[in-house]
Amino acid sequence: MTFAMILVAGAVAGLMGALLGLGGGVLIIPVLFLFLGVPIQQAIAASLVAVVATSTTSAISYVRDELSNMRLGLALEVATTIGAVLGGLTASYMSREALSAIFGAAMIGVSFYLLKNGADAALEEAPVDLGRLGGRYHDPALGREVRYRVRGLPFGLAISFLAGNLSGLLGIGGGPLKVPAMTLGMGVPMKAAVATSNFMIGVTACASAALYYVRGLVDPLVAVPACLGVTLGAFAGARLTPRLKSRSLTRALAVVLLALAAQMLLAAAGVRLR
Question: What distance in Å separates the CA atoms of residue 36 and residue 154, rounded to the nearest whole number?
Answer without folding.
Answer: 41
